[in-house]
Amino acid sequence: MSNPQPRSAVLQGVQGRLDFRAVTKRYGPTVALSEFTHSFAPGQVHALMGKNGSGKSTLVKLLAGVTGPTSGVISVNGEDRHFTSPHDAFEAGIVTVHQELSLVPELSVGENIFLGRLPHRRRAGFSVVDWAGLHKRAGELLADMGLSIDSRQPVSALSVGQQQVVEIVKAMSFNPSILLLDEPTSALASREVKQLFALIERLRARGVTMIYITHRMSELFEIADTCTVIRDGHYIGSVAMKETTPSAIVGMMFGDAARATRPPRRALDPARPVLEVRNLSRSGHFQDVSFDLYPGEILGIAGLLGAGRTELMRAIFGADRIDGGTVTFDGRDMTGASPRDMRKAGLGYTPENRKEVGLVQSLSTADNLCMASLGPIANKGLISRRREQPFIRRQIADLHIKCGDPELPVSSLSGGNQQKVVIGKWLNRQPSVMFFDEPSRGVDVQAKSQIFDIIWQQAADGLASLFVSTELEEVLEVADRILVMHHGAVVAEVDPTKIDLTELYGLCMEGARQ
Amino acid sequence: MTLVSQTTEEGGQNTPLKFLKTYPMEIILAALVIFLILVAPGFASTANVLNVLRTVSMLGIIAFGMTAVIISGEIDLSVGAGAALAGCIVAWFADRFSGVFGDWGAVTVGFAVALLLGFMLGYLTGRFRQWFNVPTFITTLALFAALRGVANLITGGFPMSSFPIGFDFLGGGYLFGIPFPVYIFALTFAGMHFLMKYTSFGREVYAVGGNMEAARLSGIDIWKVKALTLGLTGALTAVSGTLIASQIGAGTGTTATGMELDVIAAVIIGGTSLFGGKGRIWGTLIGVLFLGCISNGMTLMNVSEYWQYVVRGGIILGAVLLNQVLERVR
């Protein structure tokens, strides 16, 4: 220990108390948060729940200092604060780990942790970066959190889960009293979630107050001490996790919203598959995949993150190259076709990351809804809003898209409604096969059940679907038949009525029945 | 995310402010015109107005194509050199082939060649991006240098002016009292406006520029769309280059120097985003008129040429700043 700096990198336990008093936030005429009053007790993990558009994101923005409240007071450790910038929130001891990772992939783990405040030392009269000291301190921090990550390797070499953990270590290196975690598990596989929870447990033991935002109900009961629910910008209530149930929380979140119930499964005609995939391979992603898909069938693909589910769908759709095997669509060989060819043949694809590649955010809801069917809508290449109107109206009505004015940018819609726009874009082409990749990701429970209803409804009308979701219970609920993928290969075909969640999870993990 | 909506009386209160936000450049252009009418001697005279219109026509014909290119998320730096080359090709054909095709025949063939070459160069620039992942910025920068060289090689470095009698009408003549290029300018405006707004191709240009991957996964042939917008701009550049050659009465390798900057400036002043996906042909019309009025006004007011450059630079930056600020308050 030759480092003369008095401040150890190792964390001290700091307790933080957080009080909201009648905090209101308006955006013009809309009220995003109304008279929110609540005290978050120190040293606990507080879950914050609410469906999309409930004001949850606004609360996060207020705490992170991204925006200031219209009225009301936020106080930290008994001291009233008025944040006008993220820096103010920082000064008050609140650090936010945002949903999107903010690490620089090319830089090392250590450099990312100390980005913007790299330690320096004198060398021949110049102040240079003290790399040895930096990695020493980063190493101490990582070890202190119980992590065995080399601080010298680039962040790009880490898994998404490890990156998320590094993000939290970076946040903790500021020694905050309050840590805000915005959907930290949304992109993580189950094993990585465990690692993350171990870290959260460790921080709680030190007395760090955490505000935890998630869409996954099961996580609350595993990690949170209390759960605070907001709905339509209003504080609904706060409960201790020990004294509540998932359905009670759902009740608080939705008031009296109905839950989707599955229509009965129907027998299918196995004579004429609409899609036949034989020995399809893409090196490094999946190998030797074969299956048939029948009209009116919903075929689920279960598997852990990285099992090759998305890669398989993208390759069949023609978005990625394939190395071997054949794809037959409606009896026609479509091996190596482009997305354009597949679209023409009657295939639609809603990608997992709808914000990045499913929609053109700068365009309106109306434009996005018509984007895949400009050809059929147009008359000799000519198009006008009048011609498009029926296509826009029909999807907005059929899919219950809440968009106000369809001419406004699609970016103003909530996640669930954006997802419906992506689906509507394809339904406008009246496809015979749809690939749904994670259609429920980042979507609230109500929108989720609406989306499942749409899929079931379309299946009843004869649409064949591939359905992928990280949430295995969703695959069990939605699909008529399930293929299990493991390390890029289909390892099992199961009947969702004859398997339970634990068994399916085991199959996904191990690749074989135990 | 959707916010909880609560109707208050704020809704329709600030209509004049909303007007300001929606039509900022239109208002600024109107203010500029009024200012110049009052201050610049002879600005409002018929002869001067027609002169301004003739000048902006050459610029505008290309700028409408450039708008589509920029909306599609690409850029074309070669239009100035391309215009010079097109003029030289027409002049060269008039000089060499009038014996074969006749005076007007040679000019027509020359124009057809320039048009096709312009289209092909643009189209291939787009395909280069697809095949070799060469950014259009680089390809067109290379063309910017090379095309001017080719133009000078064709003409041997001297103006070529063996045009047939009456050829000067295209760039310098009047039809019903209005300069002929203005008709081409108006036609191009109407055509491009229609193309971008009322055809599926135009819609695809916006989609491709707004999010290339989303457009691709929607089954849009993104490379074809980009290549066609670039090709279209190349062809329009040939049209403008021919008009310029007609106006000055010669094809030379040194015309239209720096024109690419004015063209891009007009598009940007018109509110088109260099990031792609956003912009309007109408905005470019305003941008082109604005640039034309400003430089004409400054000339009339005897502002030195050097100051004119400084002012133009300031206007480009100011227009972008204004758009960014408006983006935030909208």
Summarize the helices and strands and which ones pair or pack.
The complex is a heterodimer of chains A (514) and B (330).
Chain A: E1 18-27, E2 30-40, E3 45-49, H1 56-64, E4 71-76, E5 79-81, H2 86-91, E6 94-97, H3 109-113, E7 120-123, E8 126-129, H4 131-144, H5 160-172, E9 178-182, H6 190-205, E10 209-213, H7 217-223, E11 226-231, E12 234-240, H8 246-254, E13 275-282, E14 286-293, E15 298-302, H9 309-317, E16 324-329, E17 332-333, H10 339-345, E18 347-350, H11 354-358, H12 365-370, H13 374-377, H14 385-398, H15 415-427, E19 433-437, H16 445-460, E20 464-468, H17 472-478, E21 481-486, E22 489-494, H18 501-510
Parallel strand pairs in A: 3-10, 3-11, 6-9, 9-10, 15-20, 15-21, 18-19, 19-20
Antiparallel strand pairs in A: 1-2, 1-4, 4-5, 7-8, 11-12, 13-14, 13-16, 16-17, 21-22
Helix pairs in contact in A: 5-6
Chain B: H1 15-22, H2 24-39, H3 46-71, H4 79-96, H5 98-101, H6 103-132, H7 136-155, H8 168-172, E1 174-175, E2 178-179, H9 180-198, H10 200-210, H11 212-217, H12 222-248, H13 259-269, H14 281-300, H15 305-329
Antiparallel strand pairs in B: 1-2
Summarize the structure in words.
In chain A, 33% of the residues lie in helices and 24% in strands. With 514 residues, chain A is an alpha/beta fold. A six-stranded mixed sheet of chain A has the order 6-9-10-3-11-12, sandwiched between helices. In chain A, strands 18-19-20-15-21-22 form a six-stranded mixed sheet, with helices on both faces. The N terminus of chain A is likely disordered. Chain B is mostly helical and 330 residues long. Helix content of chain B is 75%, strand content 1%. Chain B contains 15 helices and two strands. A two-stranded antiparallel ribbon of chain B has the order 1-2. Chain B is globular and about 70 Å long. Classes of the chains: A alpha/beta (514), B mainly alpha (330). Chains A and B meet through strand 2, helix 10, helix 11, helix 13 and helix 15 of A and helix 10 and helix 11 of B.
